[in-house]
Amino acid sequence: MTGIQNITVLGSTGTIGVHTLDVIARHPDRFRAFALTANARIEPLLDQCRQFQPNYAVVLDADAAEVLRQQLRALGLLTEVLCGPAALEQVAAAPEVDAVMAAIVGAAGLKPALAAARAGKRVLLANKETLVMSGGLFMEAVRAGGATLLPIDSEHNAIFQVLPTRFNQGLAHVGVSRILLTASGGPFRQATPDALAAVTPQQALNHPNWVMGPKISIDSATLMNKGLEVIEAYWLFGASPDQIEVVIHPQSVIHSMVEYVDGSVLAQLGNPDMRTPIAYALSYPERISSGVGPLDLFKIARLDFEAPDTTRFPCLALAFDALHRGGTAPAVLNAANEVAVAAFLQGKLRFNDIPRMVEATLERVSLVEATVLSDVIEADESARMIALDWLATRA
Length: 395
Ligand code: NDP
Ligand code: MG
What we know:
Blueprint: E1 5-10, H1 15-26, E2 31-38, H2 42-52, E3 56-59, H3 62-74, E4 80-83, H4 85-93, E5 99-102, H5 110-118, E6 122-125, H6 128-145, E7 148-151, H7 154-162, E8 176-183, H8 193-197, H9 201-204, H10 214-222, H11 224-237, E9 244-248, E10 254-260, E11 265-269, H12 275-283, H13 297-300, H14 314-325, H15 329-345, H16 354-364, H17 373-394
Parallel strand pairs: 1-2, 1-5, 2-3, 3-4, 5-6, 6-7, 8-9
Antiparallel strand pairs: 8-10, 10-11
Helix pairs in contact: 2-3, 4-5, 5-6, 6-11, 6-15, 11-14, 14-16, 15-16, 15-17, 16-17
Bound molecules: NADPH dihydro-nicotinamide-adenine-dinucleotide phosphate and magnesium ion.
């Protein structure tokens, strides 16, 4: 690729967004921030605009947009401020844009990621909820738009790195037998069921190996994150559910593995720092420095593996079940989980009630085929209502 690439960073004020801008700042000869977006936190967005001087800054809220506009004007900056969900799609699909980092959290990230795919961009996909909710429709948009899809999730980025480039001809065709998806096991890997019932949001937000936004931190603690990643791997790599094995690996040094029919297992290793997968996706098929230090194997000394315990962590089994059911089941799982995580963070739901709420919602929503986007949006909306209803009747 020649020339400087224009990058839109959706969710630039989040953990992935900040890491992305860190890598971009290391390579001003290769990348420039074209548009930066946030939900409502304009303070960090203003700082980013000052440093990167993007063409556009997008926030959801109109009042926040006006405040940001005035602040930028006072600083003499030319960044134009847009607001609302349609503006997210606009900056994802703008003709000047080469690559889009899709790093909004949750279902809100779906439509802008789809817009980038339809417009044929290089889509750097961190927002796994897009694939969980509407994997079939999203992969179709990637094909129809001629987009290049590069996974950011560290496990999927690792798998992408150790798969042959022709993997989309079918895993059997390239001699792959299984995908081994590693998981740290989260902060409560060894907790007893009683201890799990008493977990506080503060404890759950404290991940042993990774620094992440609040939603994915809770998902990592319940193992729902790994469940969402199983569904993500299914769509990204065309793996059947039976071909995906979750392996608990507490050190988070091996980011995932691919097993081949000849008995070879290829792994990607590195320090747990999202700048590695981000740099890989930004520069693919080349390699650039990311700011991540070399792996010190002597310091790590050992690598452990164990099987996941779906009795203590039922979210993983619920995700496999939703994948088997297909249609809108994964979208319902995702929506119920978002409601459950928000309720847990607000102190309205116990940690071990998160899977109960998800399961109850999956039992109550009627599932349909996910043929068009409105099927997915309707499933998402009714799952949220039913999950909230379940919460209200328990209170
Ligand atoms: P954060 O919570 O740190 O950041 C979320 C970003 O999305 C912020 O910029 C936030 O803006 C913005 N945002 C939140 N809600 C909305 C909304 N309704 N509309 C538009 N923008 C919104 O999340 P992470 O960076 O941790 O995660 C982002 C995505 O990447 C998630 O899908 C996650 O699963 C995935 N991911 C993250 C990893 C990590 O290490 N963090 C690893 C692998 C995947 P504001 O700041 O204004 O709230
Ligand atoms: Mg991950």
